Give the backbone structure.
Amino acid sequence: MQNYIEERVLQIANYILDTKSTLRDTAKVFMVSKSTVHTDMTVRLPLIDNLLYHEVRKVLDVNLMERHIRGGQSTHDKYKHLCEV
């Protein structure tokens, strides 16, 4: 694995741990695709730092469990805004 990829993986992992950010939001910050962030966190990170991977995995699992709640809240906010106009 090339050095710049390892650096990116570690930067993304630390960012996710610090901010509890979703893959999609993290991808926007680092200007890469959501698929790249997912691959970095699930495939490359365990090869670089297994302990860090398990910490990031906990955050990703929480985000996965809360996904349907965030989507419902987003839809609620969208229609609430439309009714106010």
